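#random but structural
TW: two for the price of one
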Amino acid sequence: MTEFAPDQLTMELLGAEHQIGLWVGRELLPIASRVRSLGGSEDDYRHWVLVSNLWTSYVGSTGDRVRKQDSNLDSAWSKAARSKPFDLEESLSDLRGRIAAHTGWTGRTGSRDRAVALALVTFCIEHNCFTRTISSYELAKWTAGISQQSVSRALTALADRGLIRELERTDRRTTAWSAKRYRVNLQWAAAGRQAGVSNTELRSTGKASLTHELTPPSDLWSRRGLGPGAQRVYETLSDEPVTARSIADRTGMKTPGVKRYLGILSEHGLAGYKTGAPGEATLHFRVDTPLDAVADSMGIYGHVEIKRWELERRQHDNRAAYPGAYKRPTPA
């Protein structure tokens, strides 16, 4: 038995589930990088990978021959020597950028699921983790006033998309009211293939390359305000005029829906437009009106804070009603 002992982050990477259709080297590379940075050898790396859940799930789902599997294992170790060390915050920031740019958030609940996904990853960035026990009540506080029930449904949808995976809790006694434990899939780039995007087409969306940081939850983008759909359109707008069709292509939304949101943004002084010659498409651009001022004019300023207070009150009531779901069991 090797004397090398992985840290908690490395163990979580080893415990991840292999994503079918993704080259396993992308999942092995951060592990190899972590082992190297912790002073481990190639033998240590091979030992821990070969007994990991990641490797077991890969072997059980691939058609690669044993020689190919071994080649993938060696390749990741070699590439780790030439790549920069694995950084969790940067990986989560990359993931957040891919979620924001993903065009597959379609349908009636697409904008809701996108908003909850961004809130979850932002929470992970703030707490330096990608595996976390968290309740839908707590996560709802990181959104723009989305209800706990909607957040719970969104988490189920995100698990179906492969962005997160629910883990079995072993830290305490669980009940029907207990918070669930989730692991964020840092390699979720492959999910873009569901929308016709291959891994090789994904550009870097690290912290340095993002056009802008995602803004904190705003009253304006809550359900009482303009909603998350309007937020998606607003984030796509810039000083450069573009057509509604272009915005639809960038967001994955339908053009009629984009036009409707553009009209709403224009009514509240957040977007402008200019018409060209007869037969030419109307061009739309962003107007930098303070969001708080718009929220105040709509009479919804402070709505998100009120929703958070209501969630905290419900959490307090739940702890009082179901103490067994929140307290550790007494040791025998």
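TW: number two ↓
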Amino acid sequence: MTTQAGNPQRPADSGGVLDLSGDWQGSLSAGAVPLRLVFHLRPAPDGGWKGTMDSPDQNARGIPIGAVALRGHALELAFPAFAAGFEGTVADDGKSVAGNWKQAGSTFPLTLVKSAGPVAEPRRPQRPRPPYPYVVRELKFPSVQPGVVLAGTVCVPRGKGPFPAVVMVTGSGPQDRDEFLLGHRPFHVIADHLARHGIASLRYDDRGVGASGGDPTLATSDDFALDAEGAVRALRALPDIRKDRVGILGHSEGGLIGPLAARRTKDIAFLVLLAGPGLPGKDVMVSQMAALLKAAGNNDADVAKSVVLQRTLVDIAAGPGSVDDRVRRMGEAADRFAEGLNETERVAFANARKGLDAQLRTLASPWFRRFLNHDPRPVLAGLRVPVLALHGSLDLQVDANSNAAAIREALRKGRIRGSRVEILPGLNHLFQTCRTGLPAEYGTIEETFAPVALARIVAFVREATGTKKTVNGARSKH
């Protein structure tokens, strides 16, 4: 085989020079939710190749590829910024690459296919697009915790105010103000719907995301509750917002954060909890694993084995000791668990074990430890504002039946008037109409947020604030 002018990265074969120029896409199954990856490769001035990567389902674009090496048909892409890489073999026709994505000690199969044209965005018919029939403003505001400044978007109905308003709080993990996931922007959809029905809103980027400052790595739900309280203060300070009618809408972990904030301040008039936990975090995590494994087709015996390991790991993660000490003890527990597996299971476990320590370190982080030990029920029972708690019947991440029952009982003990707890049939954790509830469905569903859930939210906020929407979008009293 000869090469061009001594260039080791552009070899020729019987069909000529391999051409990497263009867009290459594939789907990475490295967790519960498959992620599309798109690599943009083009010739470099030195005769080699350079490029960037997009992860459109995570709203991440233009990630630099640190190095591109093509030797024969062997392709290597390096991403030193997050210690990851791709290794594969280019097909003879130059139209696909079969290989593996490697990161944090784990290896995941990934096949790339050369695109004939631009990579199409998934269809999301509910995504709001301008011009909007309401006012949109950008807002920066301080958290109650000193030194943290957050940024968000305010949507205010047109017409005569002041208007009732909602602060939106995202679920776990660093998320932007739209709670972007797999092409979906649920918070944007909710904000748009609220504004069209006479209700203002503020949605904001989490710490360290987008235009918001702050370091999320050492923060816990208690810190995020301070951020939510700061958002409520900022919204109440606006002249077109009715100060005594501002509430919090929280999704998933946001449904835990909202009540924490409401226990701290009397400025919060109501709460909307979307798939919020009603049980301790340890119970939620174990239930989540069992539900996901069972829905994915695993038999009861295998599910039971995994539940035993999960319960052991979360008990250690939630217990005493330094992060390093708990990671070590969790690793030892996992290795003891592997001793009871059959040969096929041990091989699979050994492959997964390479990347397990990174996952265990996340499990032992300050945020996760606080989540595992938190019991929402006493906080919910101590609330003095009306609460709407919605769950999807096919939610596999926060079980609808057990968590809704716990929330209902806690609110009953607190004798909170005007509260409602409802399980909406056929909806998943994101409140999409679905078939199975598995996270793998999230990106394949065109619907972002079920209209029935949007209607429940609007009806509750109107009732909780004593307002209704006129045909012009203005607020009027009952």
